[in-house]
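Table S2 (text version). Query chain:
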Amino acid sequence: MIIPNEQVDTREVTTWKGLHLLHYQSSSCSQKVRILLREKALDWTSHDVNISRGEHISPYYLGINPRGVVPALVHDGVVHVESNDIVSYLDTLPSEAPPFVPQDPEQRRFVEESLAREAALHLDLRNITMRFLLPPFAMRKSPATLRRYAEAGRSDPQRAAEVEWWRAFGESGVSLAAAKASVAAHRAVFEDFERRLEKGPWLLGDTLSVLEVSWFIRTKRLALAGYPLEDHPRLQAWHHRLAARPAFAAETKDVLPMRLAVPAYQLYLRGRGHRLADVTKDQAGRRSTAAATDGDH
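Corresponding structure-token output:
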């Protein structure tokens, strides 16, 4: 998605030459774009947008991306947003690396459908992150911050939805029911991928693609939150192969505060019996019982 030039209020960026990425180290969508930039060996300029300090809702950044989310790519003065659109665009740029978006019509259709499925799970990933990865008190936004988020810069329907989500989260957090539904939605995808990986090491068989870039972020985040990837042995092996690639390893390293907070919160949840693994164990058990019952008929 391109932000029309006349809607870019931070006019400075319209004069930038080359590739510029405005991003945050621990943002899953930012990690996705950085992985592809590195895999494609593209030259780019980094602009850190520190979410923990609210820089994503500053007038400067909202003048670039009125949705107030990262990342945003500026290429020769043109602003691109939405991470899956950005990675697809980057794949069209000249590079000695092989393409990550297939040309075969059937494979391309599967890629488009899978990326749409990944994008549709955006709030589910957030539910899991906020319920199982980090303590909710550390993630809530103050009423003043939400007002600034809602009122600054140009209005945007998606930003309004973001503000409403954060307001509801601040009031009641992520319910267990919502968290379970979000875990179940990811488990369904992982089971599909487990079957698909019977055909080869990658989701398109023998060809590394943009699907690896997008979905690795999911398996990495869920594994950090306590999801048992061992429930899907082929997917777990796929994850380990990708984690060994320099681009994936380097660009998914979280900031130090997060690297300290996540293990501590996992210990806290373990002590209370509220880990993500406890939820998936319950869901996996129900699926196994249902399968056995179906088999008796």
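Notes on Table S2: The beta strands are 2-3, 19-23, 45-48, 72-75, 78-81. The chain is about 60% helix and 5% strand.
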